[in-house]
Amino acid sequence: IISAFVIPKYIKSNKVYYELREFIRKKDELPKLKGQYIVINQKLKLLEKKKTQIIELISGKTNLETFLSRLGTLGIKNNIQFISIVPDSFVKFIPPVSNEINNTDTDLGDLNIQVDPLLVEGIKKYTMDIEFLSTFKDLVLFLSELEFQENIILLSDINIQQDDINKENKDSLNENIDLLKTSINISIYGKI
């Protein structure tokens, strides 16, 4: 009869003993886990700082909307006569879509979409066509100043032709100055 009462109490006390040992083990591991948390948190802050620096390297510190103002200022400074500035496209970063059936990201290669390596989260890309008149010297100065802007600026489809000036405009200009008609496709990366 005594064993009927003692065995269940013994089993229960062993259960409590093992739970107590587990709690003590977890309590002893707590400082180690706290140290790991601090290290992981420091690494996260460092990665966020690097991400911000990469975004600033690509996009500069100013918004993209101010680029048109700077473009106009550069044009005036370098005697550029803008004929047209035509916005072509505006692209923002779109994160990959998660496929909930397979639990994987969709492969953009299968969709024939070209991925822009400079277009990341927090950056947008404007593409525009500009056309202007300038002398060769002013064109070189304008392009060199454009190169040193804080945004990443990619130039493509550069077309330079000698301008056919009307007779009336040619009389007012010096005979020795030949104007060049330049058209350029510009891609500018900036902050959202």
Q: Determine the N-to-C terminus distance.
A: 80 Å
Strand order of the largest sheet: 1-4-6-5
Low-confidence stretches: none
Query: Number of helical runs?
Result: 4
Helix coverage percent of residues? 40-55%
Order of helices and strands: HHEEEEHEHE
Average pLDDT number = 81
Main beta sheet: 4 strands, antiparallel
Q: Which word captures the global form? A: rod-shaped
SS strand fraction: 25-35%
Mind telling me the C-alpha Rg? Answer: 33 Å
Structural class: alpha+beta
Number of β-strand runs: 6
Provide a descriptive summary of the structure in words.
By secondary structure, the protein is of the alpha+beta class. The chain has four helices and six strands; from the N terminus they run H-H-E-E-E-E-H-E-H-E. The strands form two sheets. Strands 1-4-6-5 form a four-stranded antiparallel β-sheet. The model has no long low-confidence stretch (mean pLDDT 81).
Attribute tags:
alpha+beta
Blueprint (SSEs and pairs):
Elements: H1 2-59, H2 66-77, E1 81-92, E2 98-99, E3 104-105, E4 123-134, H3 136-147, E5 153-162, H4 167-172, E6 180-191
